[in-house]
Amino acid sequence: MFIATLIAESLSAGQLDEAADRLASVRSAPGAWRWLDEGRAADLAFAHHPDAARAALEGAFPATDVIVQPAAGREKKLLVADMDSTMITVECIDELADYAGIKARIAEVTERAMRGELDFAAALDARVALLKGLEESAIDRCLAERVRLSPGAETLVKTMRARGALTVLVSGGFTRFAEPVGAMLGFERVIANRLEIAGGALTGTVAKPIVDSTTKETTLLGAVAERGLAAEQALAVGDGANDLAMIRKAGLGVAYRAKPIVAAAAGARVDHGDLTALLHAQGIVRSAWVAD
């Protein structure tokens, strides 16, 4: 059996009946639907053709996210998440560059790297080199003034952790941001790049090896092995090209408000809702969430 989860700011019983009709039209043999959060999220069970079911439902209803997956094992025991533009609303390196007066220059490179147009490690080295001489105090200012948690992030992490899942934040960004963000959100582990600093200023270099796409994938696979899990029991979420490898390895790999290359390749997308959509996707009813 399979489950299609529909998530929106406003969802009606009539739309769910229409969704069942759409599944019937592609011979998916829909069953009953049930509310996860009345008027906002619901599950619709069906028996066959998950790819056809996803195609039939995506885009059929305004501002509605649709996640299609096997019904068995949908609640995950591992969360591996990206940070910038996923767990937080900004790209930290772009905001840090603003304190050096070169945000536009760096943000253009960041965008291209996240779209998969540039080698991630080389692009990171090039951007950090442009920050050479920036006062270390700019990091704390940026953290306080610019970094904001994404809606639903804290509820997602704390609910999964309370239910026994291992939660790991793995970022191509920097420890000086990732460690406090991880602590605020409740992650058990944080992995990120380390900016090198001397004499109270950035040296323009990053400690090697760089946390990149391969690191994210090996982090997920390592955590799966450590906990004796199957890859199907992992949830990975991110927005950029360097998240694709881990997204593809996870049982539920989610592109969150992602770049086109990621949205096209991921098995699931969240384009409209906040990160609590990933709790709905696991069948966790709203009354069971840990409030942020």
In brief:
The protein contains 13 helices and twelve strands. The chain has 292 residues and is an alpha/beta fold.
List the helices and strands and how they pair.
Blueprint (H helix, E strand, L loop, with lengths): L1 E6 L5 H13 L4 E8 L3 E6 L3 H8 L7 E6 L7 E4 L1 H5 L4 H8 L3 H12 L5 H10 L7 H9 L7 H10 L3 E9 H11 L3 E5 L1 E4 L2 E6 L6 H15 L6 E5 L5 H6 L2 E5 L3 H6 L2 E3 L6 H5 L11
Parallel strand pairs: 5-6, 5-10, 6-7, 10-11, 11-12
Antiparallel strand pairs: 1-3, 1-4, 2-3, 8-9
Q: Top keywords for this entry?
A:
292 residues; 40% helix; 4-stranded antiparallel sheet; alpha/beta; 6-stranded parallel sheet; 23% strand
**Lateral strand order in the biggest sheet:** 7-6-5-10-11-12
Described by its quaternary structure, the protein is single chain
Estimated share of beta-strand residues: 15-25%
Level of helix content? 40-55%
Counting DSSP H or I runs of 4 or more residues, the number of helices is 13
Total number of strands: 12
Using the CA coordinates, give the radius of gyration.
20 Å
Q: Can you write the helix and strand succession as a string?
A: EHEEHEEHHHHHHEHEEEHEHEHEH
Largest sheet: 6 strands, parallel
Helix- and strand-based class? alpha/beta
Shape: elongated
- Write down the overall mean pLDDT: 96
How far apart are the termini? Answer: 33 Å
Unreliable parts: none
